[in-house]
Amino acid sequence: MKLKRLLAAAILLGIPFSSAVASEGLNSGDTAWVIVSTALVMMMTPAGLALFYGGLSRYKNLLNTFAMTFVAYCLASVIWMMWGYTIAFGPDKAGITGGLSHLFMAGIGVDSLSGSIPTYVFALFQMTFAGITVALVLGSIVDRLKFSSWIVFTILWVTFIYCPIAHWVWGGGWMGDMGALDFAGGTVVHINAGVAGLVLSLVLGKRIGYGKEAMFPSSIALTALGAALLWFGWFGFNAGSQLAADGVAGSAFLVTNTSAAVGALAWMFAEWLVTKKPTVLGMASGVVSGLVAITPAAGFVNMPAALLIGLGAGMLGFYSVAKLKQKLGYDDSLDAFGVHGMCGIWGALATGLFANPAINEAGRGLFYGNPKQLWIQIVSILATAIFTAVGTLIITYLTKFLTGGLRVTEENEISGLDNSLHGERAFEIQ
Amino acid sequence: MKKIEAIIKPFKLDDVKEALNEVGIQGMTISEVKGYGRQKGHKEIYRGAEYVVDFIPKIKIEIVVDSDQTDQVVEKIREAANTGKIGDGKIFVYTVEQAVRVRTGEKGVDAI
Question: Are A53 and A144 in contact (CB under 8 A)?
């Protein structure tokens, strides 16, 4: 009441009131920006990621990669509105999960607010994150997973892995309470998806001919276009995660772009030195690495920190997919773990180092006198990785049981999934 | 009659065609083929995974000529297709027993 009177006085006196006062109610600027951001992030899945992954998969499996990406987004959209939102953002139960009071969006109306934006807008924004996270996982397993298994896996994984972790970090759960800093989803999205992909690919096994026969990407041009669309959408992902149209959102926007650009350059030059050619695939992969690493840090770090985060991400990503993967010998088809898992871990650690209270009062890292933050980040990385590894393993075996095996037949794998599973072909080239 | 079969670099096709037109060759059959010889394949690297591409695209030209003209035509193809680098291709010459023009039924040299 006091605030309202102050506000009224301010308006009467013509004093410009601060956003802190205005945030008491709906802010149309914030709302407009988050609506736009939601649309940007939505595009990242069925357009950006589908093209990025589709171009990397073999010509005979390009449409299957698109199909898995589309169906992941569609399923996540429906699950989120039915029960996902309330598991992640319902009333907190012991810091572990949200209560079920908003099943099927019950109890939320057009006047409900989350901060300064309508709850509907907040729920939709968060929905697009659930969609892209599960879609990221499929990068590890293209070319060989049954489509029915992917559908069952997606439903179980969004429900039992994504929603609880989102609650821990953003929904009032224990990780957020502990002070873990994750601005837009380093742990929730990237470490989570990367580790899940690794587990799924280990259970599923290698593709027939992996390491022996050449597996050419169907189109690096599509992959590069996909990376560009991901970059574009990521502005909504990171700057939108401020949930307000303010200075922190602007700073997040700036560092996101810087890190992506430096990531691309770092990967390109590392590759140029080691394998003698600067490839387009390297630049596209470097963009994504830089974006992944800046994600947890976006609203907390300044521009010089973004230069270092992007630099580390580009080099780490290149090392992970070109060297580490060969040493360890797993078949993570499109490097979901190498890019998202590894660069996500780097980003989460970097947030603990570079979080700058001058950018955002909520975060103070090691270099600004708070060594404890780095420890908190390590705990959040380990907890996420262990939970998702064990949970994904259980879900993978449950899926295997429910769909009668995970892999397509050998014949279908060799002839290609586009034709054998979908009865279509991606291109008609004469 | 002789059949001349030349396997050349694809970008040399136009040069070879023009050179043959100059000496009065009025028709040819070409196909896109793949293969390797001393040139071997080339290497492509995707995210550190190195693939050797063994079979390189080439163009195969087939022409049938009067035996007297054989050496001249072979030399023309060789000159036009030559870049001096490994992988320029090969030319083979075979003896042809008979030729028939489908439309008129003409036979032998008249049919080519």
Answer: no
Nearest CA in chain A to B50: A214
In this structure, is residue A121 part of a structural domain? yes
* pLDDT one-digit tens code per residue, A38-69: 999 999 999 999 999 999 999 999 999 999 99
Residue A269 vs residues A52, A228, A314, B44: alpha-carbon distances, Å: 21, 19, 9, 17
What is the amino acid identity at position A65? Answer: T
Q: Is residue A241 part of a domain?
A: yes
Residues of chain B predicted below pLDDT 50: none
Quick check: pTM over 0.90?
no
The segments of chain A whose pLDDT lies below 70 read 1-23, 430
Q: Which amino acid is at A188?
A: V
Count how many domains chain B has: 1
* pLDDT at res. A430: 61
ipTM of the complex: 0.78
Contact between residue A147 and residue A68 where contact means Cβ atoms under 8 Å apart = yes
A330 touching B, CB under 8 A?
no
Give rounded-to-5 percent helix, strand, coil for chain B. 30, 40, 35
Instruction: Write the residue in B48, B50, B53 that is nearest to A321 by C-beta.
Output: B48
Torsion of CA A85, A86, A92, A95, to 10 degrees: -60
Please write the tens of the pLDDT for every residue from A201-245. Answer: 999 999 999 988 889 999 999 999 999 999 999 999 999 999 999
Residue B53 neighbours by CB distance under 10 Å: 15
Supply the DSSP symbol for B37.
S
Q: Supply the range of the domain harboring residue A219.
A: 39-421
Where residue B94 sits, what CATH number does that domain have?
A: 3.30.70.120
Total domains, chain A: 1
Q: Which residues of B touch A215 (CB under 8 A)?
A: 49, 51
> How many CB atoms sit inside 10 A of residue B76's CB?
19
| Separation between Cα atoms, residue A164 and residue A167, nearest integer Å | 5
Tell me, yes or no, whether A43 lies in a domain: yes
Q: What is the pLDDT of residue B52?
A: 85
What DSSP string describes A229-282? HHHHHHHHHHHGGG-SSSHHHHHHHHHHHHHHHHHHHHHHHHHHHHHS---HHH
Alpha-carbon gap, residue A52 to A64, rounded angstroms: 13
- Is A157 inside a domain boundary? yes
CB proximity under 8 Å: B 31-70 to A: 44-53
- Please give the DSSP secondary-structure letter assigned to residue B17: H
Residue B39 neighbours by CB under 8 Å, 6+ apart:
B56, B86, B87
HSE value, Cβ hemisphere, 13 Å, CA-based, for B6 = 26
Contact list, B51 vs chain A (CB under 8 Å): 214-216
Q: B12 is in which domain, residue-wise?
A: 2-111
C-beta separation of A367 from A320 below 8 A: no
What CATH number does the domain containing A47 carry? 1.10.3430.10
* Residue pointed to by tokens 């013509």: A14
